[in-house]
Amino acid sequence: MFEMIREKLQGLGAEAWEMTETAQNRWEFYYIGHRLDQNRAVKVTGTEVKVYVKSEDGQFLGNAAQTISPTATEAEVDEILKKLVFQAGLVKNPYYTLTDVPVTVARKTDPVDVAAIARDCIEALAGVPETETQRINSYEIFVSEICRHTLNSNGVEYVCTYPSTELEVVVNAKKEGHEIELHRIYHSGTCDRERLAKDVARVMEFGADRLEAVPTPKLGKADVLFSTWDACRIYEYFADKMHADYVARKISDWEIGKPVAEDVKGDRVTVRVLPELPNSSMNMPVDREGSVVYERELIRDGVAAAYCGSRQFSQYLGLEKSSMVTNLEVEGGTLSEEEIRRGDYLEVVEFSDFQVDSMSGDIAGEIRLGYLHRGGEVTVVTGGSVSGSMNEAVKQMRFSKEREQYDDRLIPKVTLLAGLRITGAE
Amino acid sequence: MKAPFSEYLQSIAPALKELVAELGRDYEYVSVLSTDSVGFRISISQRAKSVSNQSVTTERGTVVRVCRDGRYSEAAFNEFDPKDVAGKAAEIRRALDAQTEILKACASEVYETGKLADEPLVLFVEKEADELPERSDAEALVRVLTEMSDRGMETIPGALDVMVSATSTHVSKMFLTANRDLRQSYVFTEASAASYAPNAEGDIKFAAEGVSGCAGPEIISGLDAKIDELAEVISDLVRAEEIVPGEYEIITEPGVTGLIAHEAFGHGVEMDMFVKGRALGADYLGKRVGSEHVTMHEGALCDESVTAYAFDDEGTLAGDVIEIDRGILRTGICDALAALRLGCEPTGNGKRENFAHKAYTRMTNTVFDSGEDTVEDMIASVKYGYLLKGLDSGMEDPKHWGIQCIINRGYEIVDGKLTGKVVAPVIMTGYVPDVLGSVTMASRDRRVDGNGFCGKGYKEWVKVADGGPYLKMKARLG
Asked: Does chain A have fewer CB atoms within 10 Å around its N or its C terminus?
């Protein structure tokens, strides 16, 4: 299919084209308790074709895309490609060009043993210590070998095979007829058994604590500490604001060489894009448009350093080297975790759904489990919500020297946002 | 016109029936779901435009479900040669046998489940649609959507952009077993207009309006009327203040009512969660969970929305169940395997993100019934509270019955009158029976919206629709 499309594209007269064939071999195992609910084997492939057509005056470039099924007939492929060329001609975007930088690593195809990774996951979760009151409710395991082959009309071509593992784990804790659950999703390249077991054990402790929780008091405003994967949303706000698409669309007004916030009294953020992080599920030498992923600083010590993003918007901003964000690294702050934890604060370890809206800066999340630290005392709380604005919180933000990796995000282990609004549940 | 059933699926149906028979030699139960859904997505803004003949809901592929010795397994694929059925059957056996080896090595026990019913049934449904997405006039659509975006830029004060998008999907699905042959074809379409503008402090405020339905691209033109509404909403948002956290009397407009229906009880009565012991609802069947004013329906037959199918992804015919009847929880919704395990009937709610994904119990149309009140009377009855409009997102907690709804904005009501003060955003939280128990009024009209997707936790995205009338209740806002 790939070769047939390639040949047909040559004669269509399009300004440019790119196509990516993605083949996925995925094994899935679903458990209720530790009993197998269902096992699934998925083998799918598809070729996404994007065709570009230049306007007669050369001012505009339009594109149209479609994923072609492997069962499409030659006649269907002909029809699809002709339709794409017509549709691309209807779209008027300011002119830009496709990636033309040759890929140094044109082939990265380490073998992926889906069966071995799946077995690691099953054994790791089967081996998690449980008690009468804290147990695993259910889990779902998804292990994939993904092979991407990308080619564009400028001759940029690469093949990349990589593993991707996702686990969803639900933990229960109960006491005197009252039972609660906590939920986690883990993403990684292969299965990190040790880390998985350690984190699930930690979640079980959270579960036991939640049973003792009292309604969150009406705190008005409080400093909130983030020590779980929810903190990734905070740092993605910074990366999004440096996205070329956001800047070109005027969603972000952060300017290169200028501080991302005025009157900063806390730690200043340094955010970096990396092509590789240990066992990340996003370790790819190039992004999905074929642009090489270079290590680069987006923000240095609280000052905007470089934009990144899609080929189209990067060119609109005049960026010579750019790619989409894959792995993100955030440098540690000036204080240790222990130093940050001195004083009064609310540590929320479980939200219903913690959100940081990169566009508005709005922060929101219902508290499922928190630890209220006041005057040296710790109270376990639940209910109510946290809200505020990242645009304001960035001015007094503190984050630890120590760091923690969550799949494709390497971020400070704890992050403190001052003065967020807390709606109590009392 | 009738939305024609896929010629491709018609062409491979005999071979897939052979595959069912071939695998039937090794397995006690075999079913096949094969899909061929085509469509488009067009996005137009002032800064970028794109056309794509695909969307999250377009797909072509097949999933085979088999059962042996009480264990259910599935194999999904999208390469199929009708001339080599034996080869495909062998490939499926090899893949599932390889997984069996891993399960044996890990000493995994099986959640043994009986054999799914396979009563004879033949169904062929082609629903009506004025236009088909695959034959639509892309040039005209690009022009119309561009005009809407341009008009929005003129109308919406301070707008930095107006993003208009339209998605239309022509669904064809075929479900086959030894005794069943179900085929359906229908079209659903949705379109939305979104805009953002800075307030006086430079913070960006965002809002969106949309149209949707079980219809062809002909409904996209209805989005034009929403541009003026969007202008009003953005004008309100840029002058919005922070809400003072607390418990308030609230009135929810149908969009927010739908979000509550979805998050409060929709997820809470998905009965695959009963099997896992993950839903408090299992203990409350037959008990009061809301006030007399709360009646809630769920099912693909409830509304001609984006999820108005004739049968679900497990071959169960679409239904319409009353989940809550005047405050009493009567039943939940159930996929076929969960129903077997619970000893009840499936309700036609077994849905997949696409052929390559597992079927779970999922919502379709989740809708509160209307009442007898007028919106004017409802507002007049509020001493101090808010009229809540526009939904951003929500999250359920079926085990603990907590609810989180992030709502776009609230309009202050004092002594029965709207004051003109706007607050945004608004986070509504609470304990579901308390929230539904506080419902005291419901308006006569109702609306069902189908823009957006629903996840199971944080994944498995499917189309759903929800709505209802204006409701008056109490809730915590922050």
From this structure: C
